[in-house]
Amino acid sequence: MSIAPPETSLVETRRVQCDGAVSIRRGKNFTPAALGHPRVFLEIDEHGYVDCGYCDKRFILKGGPADGADQSTLPDISAAAS
């Protein structure tokens, strides 16, 4: 049995970036958190999603094959940093 990724993000482009930082809401503004990992650029392939190799965040291509799928049933697809 697979486990769903800890965090997912629906995106509209195949090339995404991740730095592991979570935005902190302060009133109406969002401030990037200081903690995270080195910024990496990831490419979503024909599966319609990619997982960050540092923090396991999953990026799902809007309208792609993984959009709307049960994320816990999909295998991890980590991309190398570029």
Overview of this protein structure:
With 82 residues, the protein is mainly beta. 0% of the residues lie in helices and 33% in strands. It contains no helices and 7 strands. β6 (49-51) and β7 form a beta hairpin. The radius of gyration is 13 Å and the shape is globular. The mean pLDDT is 81.
- Please compute the radius of gyration using only Cα atoms: 13 Å
Order of helices and strands: EEEEEEE
Number of strand elements: 7
% residues in beta strands: 25-35%
The span between the termini is 31 Å
Number of helical segments with 4 or more residues: 0
Instruction: Tell me, briefly, the overall form.
Output: globular
Main sheet specs: 3 strands, mixed
Query: Could you tell me the mean pLDDT?
Result: 81
Low-confidence stretches: none
Indicate the structural class.
Answer: mainly beta
Strands of the widest sheet, in order across it, are: 1-7-6
| Fraction in helix | under 10%
Structure summarized in a few sentences:
Helix content is 0%, strand content 33%.
Keywords, separated by commas or semicolons:
globular; 82 residues; two-stranded antiparallel ribbon
Secondary-structure topology with pairs:
Layout: E1 8-11, E2 15-18, E3 23-26, E4 29-32, E5 40-43, E6 49-51, E7 58-61
Parallel strand pairs: 1-7
Antiparallel strand pairs: 2-5, 3-4, 6-7
